[in-house]
Amino acid sequence: MVQRLLEPGEIESLDHTSIPRLLLPEARSLFTGRATRLRQLADNQIKGIPVGDTMKGYLLMMAALVDAQAAVIRTLPAETFALPDAAGIELAIDHHMPPLPVSGQRPATWRRVFDAILDQLDPLAASQPQLAAVLAELRALDSAELEGCADAVLAELTEGVHPLHAPFVAAALQVMWTMRASQLDAKRVQPLVTNTLCPVCGAHPVASVIRIGGQSQGYRYLQCSCCASEWHMVRVKCTTCESTAGVAYQSIEPEGGMPAVDPNEPVNKANDPSRVARAEICDSCHTYRKIFNQEHDYNVEPLADDLASLALDVLVGEAGYSRSSGNPLLWFNAE
Description:
Domain FdhE C-terminal: 236-330
Oligomer: single chain
Domain FdhE N-terminal: 19-192
Family: Belongs to the FdhE family.
Keywords: Cytoplasm
Domain FdhE central: 197-235
């Protein structure tokens, strides 16, 4: 049976208690699945997201970093990821504020996560001198330097942040916030005044994804770049300025051109590589954010797929659009 896709106005008129408004991360499986996807992408196994040789090595390095994130979750004690006091969480929820804000004071235990991730990478660094050098530099950072890097990462600032250091600091912060987010009650968390920021931690989304299965079938969610929570936003709506005018899509044409269209096939047929990864562009604010479609690739992983689809960033950037927010595992110098 082909399910009819609802228009934005129709979705907004529905009873939203029937749509899972917030999907909290399954922290203990998230990073394992992400590492697997990164390796598949690096091996060019994913139709619709072509990866060149220059990107392959970086994706494999990030897969190792994500493996380290998964290992740290398994080995560190649960109290490392303790939630703030209940009264503080309730106060934030009552005022439609993020209960686990990325701004403000961080739990001191994030440093324990950071050290553990570096330790997990030591065996790999023994055979990779460049990685060994980066780990040595990270361990040499004093407390003020490390906390300053964390501040910049959470604020998505490029000024004063070493692009090779930032992904490792971001990885530790991701583990910290993802593990804590997974302990919340999704039904209690309230939407923010703006739907363009994560209702759990207030960070920007890394990308959006069209989900399939159950009550989420056919609905679009934004995935948080920090805590991996996903929140619902209607389709064909800019995820930066929330405009519904001037929204369009760009994708990378598969090698060999677009497949021939069979007039007898349904318009929304599955497994169309050209619809796995697209850039949703907005002519109102001239920004874009990528959107991945589980209807066309069941195993889409927004952060990993966003990282691998750098060719799409180049394409849209050349068309004059600016990226709405970054990927925590890929940083560039300010210039």
